[in-house]
């Protein structure tokens, strides 16, 4: 049986791309997931929440046009992450989070990072620029990105530049 070619990565359309890229996290050490409460969270390899933002019902539906859900899967029906209190974004119920990366997985990732420092540095630099552009987009067009994202970015913009630029 011939091997099937992996599908190409589907680029996220705006406004989802900027919302996704605006989350804090290290591209080489973190990953992002949309939890069942409608909050998009950036997680470290050990499962700690690094950053989060609530998505509206419309944004969640838009995300699922890009990444379709299995037929009959309805855990996101009627979910609106913008109604989740912001203190719960960073401290969700444990059953909302996926399992953390295994110790073996973390060791493999660490080894790969040590063997490929140029790639890791390039990923981090690319993410830093993408994150800055995404945050600028959100601040400049609150209508497109939503009130919650706009307010979060305005609070972040009040931080000293070295903390806001992370």
Automatic annotation (TrEMBL):
Origin, by domain of life?
Answer: Eukaryota
- Record-given protein name: Uncharacterized protein
